[in-house]
Structure formats: structure tokens, C-alpha cells
Amino acid sequence: MLNGGVGQAGMDRLLEMLAIKNARVLTITQGVIDKGTVLIEGTRIKAVGKDVSIPEGAHIIDGTGKVLTPGLVDAHSHAGLDEEGYGSEGRDYNEATEPATPWLRAIDGINPSEMGLREAAINGVTTICVVPGSANVLGGEGVIIHTYGTVVDEMVVSKDAGLKVAFGENPKRVYQEQKKMPTTRMATAAILRENLVEAANYVNRLEKGEQGSGEAVERDLRMETLVRVLRREIPLRAHAHRADDIMTALRIADEFGVRIVIEHATDGRKVAEQLAKRGVPAIVGPTMSSRSKVELQELSFTTPAALTKAGIKVALTLDHPVIPLKYLPVVAALAVRAGLPEEEAWKAITINPAEILGVGNLIGSIEANKEADLVLWSGDPLDVRSRAEVTIIAGQVVGK
Q: Is the peptide bond before 171 cis (omega within 30 degrees of 0)?
């Protein structure tokens, strides 16, 4: 039996036409619709409103007394790469053997049947960005996926997630143990610069070869993702907690003219003006955790409110498996308690991460023509007593 009591015959109809009616619809971008209806055709939202006509033969879910929201989005996760319950056998997120591995791709390590992904889906988290870990200065390429499916290639929302890079304690700790660079923050920055310069030189050789003024250049997997960064096709996704690390990340982005997203941003409020004037977004968290290392001394749920007030686009992350994905509404509620306006908290787990990931045209709000990623909750999702009763991902009802 599938979520919400819909059997296999119901599933077949869902792929054609489905209506959710009488729900309190939080569209995120178009306000709140009381006793609203959302009509789904195939994988897309066909119509949203109070007076939507429901075609004969459509499968209907009654949302009376319930709340309908977009599927929740976490823009920084290791789900599927760090498999719950597997120990070392399921740890595929850090290739901690050399500090620069830009040619690695998260998609090649994701187990779509991983427990954390399944649990996320049935609890309303429908889209995540999966990135390598932070052991390396350059960790590899991320991927944006739905949390439900049997083949990871069919779960992909976008492969243009960006290149994971890491500052601060983690690369230092890993390579101090191996007695090689980087053992200092200076070396971390130098390794990133070195790779970007090498990529820039590779681009020059490529362009000369294409113009016939130089020799043909052999394909170099190490360089390809970095070339996309230099051409601003994808951003650097920078693991940075401390304010000085955030500034080093911004300094390097400025030097090379590349796009960047700051992830974790524990000290972000200290450099909020610097982030805001550059238009750099911040993915904040995991905040529902302990101060397990020095760079987490400023950990606080007041950070999302401070950054939002400064004009920075903020998303919340759980850094799964540090905190399981199913608790995304809980951290949003805790951010509200610490001063983040409720409307902004909703944006921080829906449209903001979607836009930061470059897929805001597809997901993150309830609008006609967007992908049908929806969650029907038993009550206010920011109330811990509420539960996801029906999760719909790309028009498909997900089973519990």
C-alpha cells in the first residue's frame, strides 16, 4: 500500500491526473490559499487555486484540515554517499588520498536504495544536492537529485550542482595525519589557486587548438570540472565555517572571477556585509548539533535571521547524515524561534535552496508548470507533532 492509502491502481492514475483539494496551500511564492486545489498532470503541476476545475476521472486526495507545501529541499547533503547502518563499507564521500580530486563525481558513489534517502522522501524532503565530503581541498562534483527512485540516473534533477571545495580544519586534519600538504590554511588556499591556474592554462591551450593556432589538446578529466567553474557554468561550493575561511573563499572567487556558494557559514554574520555586497548565498547548518570542533564555537540558530536581515539569500542544511534529512522542518522551526520570520524560514527550505542550486524554475514552490513535488502534512509542518501524510515526487506518490 502506498502513502496516503493509494494502491497500485491509484499510482497508475497519478501518472495521468491527480487533484489535491480543500488543503491550506503554502505556495511559497504566491501566498497562502485556504481550501485550495492543486491539479497534477503527469509529472507537472497543471493548475493551482481556489476554483480549479477537476476533470472527470482524476484521482482525488482530500486535504481538508491539512497543509500542502512544496517538497522540501536541502542544498548540502551526503545522503546516498554516506550510507546509514553500513559503517566503513558505506562511506563513499571522501577520497582522502590526495588533496585535489576535482574529477570525482558524487553521482558515481550514490546508492539510491540507501536508508537515509528513503526516509527523507517519506518525510517530505524531495530534493537534495549531494556533494563529496570536506576532507579534500577539491573534493569533486556534486549532483542534484530527487530522494526517491531505484536508478540514480533517473533521480537526477540537474548535474550542474558545482565543485565542492573545503577550507578550515578538515583538510588540515586529514593531511597532517598523512604528513603532506595542506597542514595549514595557507596551503589549502594555495592548492585551490594552483588548480585554478592550471585549469586556466588548460583553457588557453584548448582555445588555441580550437582556433588552429596551437596543437590539439588531449582530454584531461582532472581539468574538465574546473574549466566549467572558470567559465561560470557551475559554482564553487565552499565548505567554510569560520569568518576568515569565508573571506579566503571570497578572495579566491574574486581573483578568478568565479561563482561561489558558502556552505555552513557558521560565522557568516561576522562577514555578512561582504557576502551581501557580492550577492553570495549562504547554506547555513548543521546548527542542531554540538560544537564538536573549534570552528563551530559561534554555532547559533540566530545566524539565518542575521544573514537574511543583511539581504543574503539563505538556505538551511542538515549536512546529512550529521542530522537526518527528515528533521528539516524542525530546524526551520528552531530558526523561527531564534528570530527568522516564518515566511523566510519556509523560503529557506524550499525556494531559496532551489534557486541557489539553479533549479528554482523547476521546484521549490507550488506554481503551474513546475514539477509536481508536493507534501501533504497532517498539520502545520513547523509543529513537531505534524507528519508528512502524502509525499509526491515528480507526480508520483511515494510509499512509506
A: no
Tell me the CATH number for domain 72-363.
3.20.20.140
Q: Where are the domains of the chain?
A: 1-70+364-400, 72-363
Kindly give the pairing relationship between strand 32-41 and strand 163-166: unpaired
Contact call for residues 196 and 138 (beta carbons, < 8 A): no
Helix-helix angle 185-211:243-256, to 10 degrees = 20
CA 318 to chain centre: 10
CA distances in angstroms from 396 to 3, 7, 10, 260, listed in the order given:
10, 12, 10, 34
The answer to whether residue 10 scores a pLDDT higher than 60 is: no
Phi, psi dihedrals of residue 36, rounded to the nearest 5°? -90, 170
**Bridge partners of 138?**
100, 165
Domain 1-70+364-400 fold is: Urease, subunit C; domain 1 (2.30.40)
Place of cell 553570495: 280
Instruction: Report the interhelical angle of 169-177 vs 185-211 (nearest 10°).
Output: 100
DSSP letter string over 87-120?
GGGGB-S--TTSSB-TT-BGGGG--TT-HHHHHH
- CB count, 10 Å around CB of 9? 9
> Higher confidence at residue 89 or residue 374?
374
**How far lies 33's CA from each of 29, 150, 192, in Å?**
11, 34, 48
Cβ atoms within 10 A of the Cβ of 327, count? 18
Contact in structure between 141 and 156 (CB atoms under 8 Å): no
Write the single-letter amino acid at 320: H
Asked if pLDDT for residue 9 goes beyond 50, the answer is: no
The mean per-residue pLDDT over the stretch 217-228 comes to 95
